[in-house]
Amino acid sequence: MSVRKLKPITPGQRFRVVNGFDAITTDKPEKSLLAPKKRSGGRNSQGKMTMRYKGGGHKRRYRIIDFKRDKQGIPATVATIEYDPNRTAFIALLNYQDGEKRYVIAQNGLQVGQNIVSGSDIAPEIGNAMPLSSIPLGTIISCIELRPGQGAVMARSAGSFAQLMARDGKFATVKLPSGEVRMILVNCMATIGAVSNSDHQLIVGGKAGRTRWLGRRPRTRPVAMNPVDHPMGGGEGRSSGGHPRSRKGLPAKGYRTRSKTKASNKYIVERRKK
């Protein structure tokens, strides 16, 4: 894992920091695991813009990722580590012994040629997927299910990881990347190790065009709007805009919007840090 600072031969490259892509082993994806990815450009079926700041972006094809890791007990060999334009993490192509190929989220330290497997009675090694009931306490984990059989939904982005803190009855206590401590059923699956591409946070776009390549249009600051357009608009000169709030008038930056009667509140042991 490394990043490269480009030589400023153009103004856009002066501050540009790009990924070194040291871990990537091929630039050709597995054709059988590709799917088309349609773009809406923020427009509805009538062609009217209903979502601001979306549009453009480079053409992509979706890589079908196995988030469930439900091929239990069948070893697989890591064939390649690849770049995925749809996510911040790298992905790994697995060749299973029965001939099937699948993409999974690559963990930090996963090597080509390494054998990984999913199941309950296996060694807790990097890349292996196991139920929380079989993972030793204190282990760094990622790609965690919230409901059994649902597929991984937590700790999936580049460099993120969680830690298994405790087990009590049918629940395991996990410290999530946000700092939240939460109870999860012990028969939910998780993968050993932190997610790859931990240097993603060091990347600098260098120019506005790179944000456009990612499909994001320029965003208008609320303070620059008129009072009719936003609660923070208007005022003489460079007025700050008062208390930060959303377009609908709800306070932003610190105001808690989570429902106090939400059923899953009882599973949260400790709220995330502000």
TrEMBL record:
Entry keywords, A to Z: Ribonucleoprotein, Ribosomal protein, RNA-binding, rRNA-binding
UniProt xrefs under SMART domains: Ribosomal_L2, Ribosomal_L2_C
Ranges where the Large ribosomal subunit protein uL2 C-terminal domain occurs: 124-251
Region of interest: Disordered: 28-53, 221-274
InterPro entries assigned: NA-bd_OB-fold, Rib_uL2_dom2, Ribosomal_uL2, Ribosomal_uL2_bac/org-type, Ribosomal_uL2_C, Ribosomal_uL2_dom3, Ribosomal_uL2_RNA-bd_dom, Translation_prot_SH3-like_sf
GO cellular component: large ribosomal subunit
GO molecular function terms noted in the UniProt entry: rRNA binding; structural constituent of ribosome; transferase activity
Pfam family of the protein (one): Ribosomal_L2_C
Residue span(s) of domain Large ribosomal subunit protein uL2 RNA-binding: 42-118
Any one GO biological process: cytoplasmic translation
Biased composition (Basic residues): 244-263
Subunit structure: Part of the 50S ribosomal subunit. Forms a bridge to the 30S subunit in the 70S ribosome.
Family: Belongs to the universal ribosomal protein uL2 family.
Function: One of the primary rRNA binding proteins. Required for association of the 30S and 50S subunits to form the 70S ribosome, for tRNA binding and peptide bond formation. It has been suggested to have peptidyltransferase activity; this is somewhat controversial. Makes several contacts with the 16S rRNA in the 70S ribosome.
Protein name: Large ribosomal subunit protein uL2
UniProt source species: Aquimarina aggregata
Originating gene: rplB
